[in-house]
Design a protein that fits this description.
By secondary structure, the protein is mainly alpha-helical. Helix 1 packs across helix 3 and helix 1 packs antiparallel against helix 4. It is built from four helices and no strands.
């Protein structure tokens, strides 16, 4: 029974850890699309990607740090003891 609890907890922890890193990267990378109102030249918002993609790539270490803290927080709360 303890093995099953640990497998479930590990799956939840791993899923939230991966989603945190990917979600933060995607939020920064696609921020111009999320906030675009068609005011760019030609009515598109492609100019924002020229700034957001390099910034998203530079923040990968911060995404990994955030994922580490999410993993640590969830592990302390969800990981079953004996």
């Amino acid at each position: 029974m303890l093995l099953l609890k640990r497998l479930i907890a590990g799956t939840i922890i791993a899923a939230f850890t991966v989603v945190t890193a990917i979600g933060l990267f995607a939020l920064i990378a696609f921020f111009p699309t999320i906030t675009c109102h068609g005011g760019g030249s030609g009515g598109n918002c492609g100019e924002g990607y020229l700034a957001s993609l390099p910034i998203a790539l530079l923040t990968i270490p911060l995404d990994l740090v955030a994922a580490f803290f999410v993993c640590k927080l969830l592990a302390s709360g969800l990981w079953p003891e004996r």
